[in-house]
């Protein structure tokens, strides 16, 4: 297979790193996810990754806690996950750098856009942690922002379902799956692809999104090589 894209941003949820445990990091699961990332990197694809933190902490379920402090705790959770992904990639022989949006220089590089692009150009995988570095912004928004900054060709949003549906397929067995959607469809129908801030940023910066299932990590390679998997969200579905 030949890659369709030169530079991609892969969005991994924290839950995807937890395996069957549902919380924490299952390192065997992380290794399975990282193997197709290595394969694509060896093909010459430049890969950046944004990780969530839901396997350790979900700010929206923090009860009466101050939202800003809860979001800062979530940023720290993403840093843990980023280091786990980096370790797995390194064990597979992949050169990788972790960059964080809040300063923790003893642990990882600070996020510097030009440095991140240079790493990508040298064939290194770059893992972005700590979201945007600001409370009230999701890691989906961070993925959209970083994709725009590094001029990624596409965002690959790896999820627990095989695409975007008109309703929850776990609740409604007759839920309809979309092969393609426009950003206006996502926003107007309030489809749970990304939050509205992230979707608007992708639309304004002409960055398509592919939503696909990570149940089979090899789907990462299939999507990068242009196979029709999941749901593509783009500006105009007529082209």
UniProtKB/TrEMBL annotation:
<comment type="function">
    <text>Catalyzes the reversible phosphorylation of UMP to UDP.</text>
</comment>
<keyword id="KW-0418">Kinase</keyword>
<feature type="binding site">
    <location>
        <begin position="11"/>
        <end position="14"/>
    </location>
    <ligand>
        <name>ATP</name>
    </ligand>
</feature>
<keyword id="KW-0808">Transferase</keyword>
<dbReference type="GO" id="GO:0005737">
    <property type="term" value="C:cytoplasm"/>
</dbReference>
<dbReference type="GO" id="GO:0005524">
    <property type="term" value="F:ATP binding"/>
</dbReference>
<feature type="region of interest" description="Involved in allosteric activation by GTP">
    <location>
        <begin position="19"/>
        <end position="24"/>
    </location>
</feature>
<feature type="binding site">
    <location>
        <position position="168"/>
    </location>
    <ligand>
        <name>ATP</name>
    </ligand>
</feature>
<keyword id="KW-0067">ATP-binding</keyword>
<feature type="binding site">
    <location>
        <begin position="132"/>
        <end position="139"/>
    </location>
    <ligand>
        <name>UMP</name>
    </ligand>
</feature>
<feature type="binding site">
    <location>
        <position position="71"/>
    </location>
    <ligand>
        <name>UMP</name>
    </ligand>
</feature>
<comment type="subunit">
    <text>Homohexamer.</text>
</comment>
<keyword id="KW-0547">Nucleotide-binding</keyword>
<dbReference type="GO" id="GO:0006225">
    <property type="term" value="P:UDP biosynthetic process"/>
</dbReference>
<feature type="binding site">
    <location>
        <position position="54"/>
    </location>
    <ligand>
        <name>ATP</name>
    </ligand>
</feature>
<dbReference type="GO" id="GO:0033862">
    <property type="term" value="F:UMP kinase activity"/>
</dbReference>
<dbReference type="Pfam" id="PF00696">
    <property type="entry name" value="AA_kinase"/>
</dbReference>
<dbReference type="InterPro" id="IPR001048">
    <property type="entry name" value="Asp/Glu/Uridylate_kinase"/>
</dbReference>
<protein>
    <recommendedName>
        <fullName>Uridylate kinase</fullName>
        <ecNumber>2.7.4.22</ecNumber>
    </recommendedName>
</protein>
<dbReference type="GO" id="GO:0044210">
    <property type="term" value="P:'de novo' CTP biosynthetic process"/>
</dbReference>
<dbReference type="InterPro" id="IPR011817">
    <property type="entry name" value="Uridylate_kinase"/>
</dbReference>
<keyword id="KW-0665">Pyrimidine biosynthesis</keyword>
<keyword id="KW-0021">Allosteric enzyme</keyword>
<feature type="binding site">
    <location>
        <position position="53"/>
    </location>
    <ligand>
        <name>UMP</name>
    </ligand>
</feature>
<dbReference type="InterPro" id="IPR015963">
    <property type="entry name" value="Uridylate_kinase_bac"/>
</dbReference>
<comment type="pathway">
    <text>Pyrimidine metabolism; CTP biosynthesis via de novo pathway; UDP from UMP (UMPK route): step 1/1.</text>
</comment>
<keyword id="KW-0963">Cytoplasm</keyword>
<feature type="domain" description="Aspartate/glutamate/uridylate kinase">
    <location>
        <begin position="6"/>
        <end position="213"/>
    </location>
</feature>
<feature type="binding site">
    <location>
        <position position="58"/>
    </location>
    <ligand>
        <name>ATP</name>
    </ligand>
</feature>
<feature type="binding site">
    <location>
        <position position="159"/>
    </location>
    <ligand>
        <name>ATP</name>
    </ligand>
</feature>
<dbReference type="InterPro" id="IPR036393">
    <property type="entry name" value="AceGlu_kinase-like_sf"/>
</dbReference>
<comment type="similarity">
    <text>Belongs to the UMP kinase family.</text>
</comment>
<feature type="binding site">
    <location>
        <position position="165"/>
    </location>
    <ligand>
        <name>ATP</name>
    </ligand>
</feature>
